[in-house]
Amino acid sequence: MIWLRHRFLFLLVLAGSLGATYLLWQHEKNSVAQVLRATLDFNLRETSSRIEQRLASYEQMLRGAQGLYAASDNVERRDLRAFVESLQTGSDFPGMRGIGVAPLVLLKDRSRHISELHRLGFPDYTIVPEGRRDVFAPIVQVEPTISPSWDAMGYDMYSDSVRRAAMERARDSGMAAISGKVSVPPQADRTPQGAFLMYMPLYQHDAVHNSPSTRRATLVGWTFVPLLMNELMASLYGENEAATKFRIYDGVGLTQQTLMYDSGHDDGRAPDGQQLSANEYIVVGGHTWTLVISAQDGFDARFGRDKSQLIAITGIVLSLLLAMLTWQLSTSRERAVVLATEMTGELRAMAATDFLTGLSNRRHFMAGMADELARLQRLDYNGSAVLMLDVDHFKQINDSYGHAVGDAVLKHLAHLMQGSLRKVDLIGRLGGEEFAMILNGTIGSAAQTFAERLRQTIADTPLMHNGQPIPVTVSIGITDMSVVDANAESALMRADEALYCAKAGGRNRVEAVTEGTKKLILSAELRPGSMA
Ligand SMILES: Nc1nc2c(ncn2[C@@H]2O[C@H](COP(=O)(O)OP(=O)(O)OP(=O)(O)O)[C@@H](O)[C@H]2O)c(=O)[nH]1
């Protein structure tokens, strides 16, 4: 039950600290995810803000061109060229393919328009694509002329629905308008990395155009800039490019057809929801783009300070240590009780044992003798014999061989005596070279025979010391202890009297005395003339 309680406490502490570790680990994971999310959002906002600023600068440029045409009703080709040259478009306007002009040409004015261009030095000029339409918006000039292969002269932008939508938006609003994804130049195949145009409407010189209807009535054409998304974005993209993938879609549909720009840094991770990404819609020139940023390999390591693994390992180790410490503390009381019990047992044994021979000491022997007498009195048995045994001339042994050998003799005798007794018998060392025994349930001649055999065994078994035998003899006094004895001491005194007789009788002998008659019974070794 106690150990169950300890185990429960151990498991409780372990589970509690592991639970706390899990919460910390989870919290760290969430914190890192929040930091990564915030970093990604920040990158996205910053990029979209840069795009808006860049497009605003193009819009500003077109406003300048618009102003050029508003200032005069007779702007010549060289005027636009001079204007564009004065802008010094270069690295400041990346992605731009020049500034162009497209007049509004009605069907009835088409021939006159073509003749005019022929007269201005473009003999091959015509409006493409061919076909009968009510309104045309052919490109008549792009400055600076960048490439002869880009033969956009005469291309009717009004014939393309994507361009036309932006042009009409610009016309009606009087503001800059951006087209959807187109090909630049117009004859090129549509490429996955798109291009777009920004239009600014041109109205009649000095005309009022403060409403959609007046704007439509006074429109004379458009000035525009074709823009390549790749080049535009290359100049905008920040330093986090390598760790993120950036895409721009035309409109809100995220398809390959609407993809305008792709940064191309793709680590191959599928957009399976595990990939961290963020979207933002921006409205530029009245047109919506969807910006998508997604984290790539290395983004976590670059921007996250993920200590969750360290927390997990440290937490588990500390949890185990704490649980083990709890176990140690909770079981220490039980272990102390066990230790105390063992020590008490040892002390008890020491208190009852003679340290030299390992036999019972006097006090313990006398207690055993008293118990035996009480048992006799209770059960009314015949009795038990009490023997007292003393080493003969032990002083001489000590004096001859030394005290250590004397001790060895005492141990030797204790061993011989123990070997002769039954388990039910008692033996003890009363002190010095004096021993006592109780032969349980054995009295009279049987006890005397035992004593005589013991005396003989001792006399026949010398202690071997350094290869030499040390002969040892003992004298034994014997008496019967019975219910008539008032106490154990009286029986022991009788045995002592018998021992005295054995000593006085010459030693190495057994003398017996019985209660009542006080008659001494001589041993087999009794010489003629002794007490009878
Ligand atoms: N080595 C050793 N000697 C002990 C011990 N206890 C008592 N003695 C010695 O035992 C001797 C007993 O001597 P005595 O009382 O004269 O008896 P004895 O020499 O045996 O002579 P008798 O008993 O008359 O035969 C003394 O010299 C004690 O010092 C012990 O534990 N070890």
UniProtKB/TrEMBL annotation:
<keyword id="KW-0472">Membrane</keyword>
<protein>
    <recommendedName>
        <fullName>diguanylate cyclase</fullName>
        <ecNumber>2.7.7.65</ecNumber>
    </recommendedName>
</protein>
<dbReference type="InterPro" id="IPR006189">
    <property type="entry name" value="CHASE_dom"/>
</dbReference>
<dbReference type="InterPro" id="IPR029787">
    <property type="entry name" value="Nucleotide_cyclase"/>
</dbReference>
<dbReference type="InterPro" id="IPR042240">
    <property type="entry name" value="CHASE_sf"/>
</dbReference>
<dbReference type="InterPro" id="IPR043128">
    <property type="entry name" value="Rev_trsase/Diguanyl_cyclase"/>
</dbReference>
<dbReference type="InterPro" id="IPR050469">
    <property type="entry name" value="Diguanylate_Cyclase"/>
</dbReference>
<dbReference type="InterPro" id="IPR000160">
    <property type="entry name" value="GGDEF_dom"/>
</dbReference>
<feature type="domain" description="GGDEF">
    <location>
        <begin position="382"/>
        <end position="515"/>
    </location>
</feature>
<dbReference type="Pfam" id="PF03924">
    <property type="entry name" value="CHASE"/>
</dbReference>
<feature type="domain" description="CHASE">
    <location>
        <begin position="71"/>
        <end position="292"/>
    </location>
</feature>
<keyword id="KW-1133">Transmembrane helix</keyword>
<dbReference type="Pfam" id="PF00990">
    <property type="entry name" value="GGDEF"/>
</dbReference>
<keyword id="KW-0812">Transmembrane</keyword>
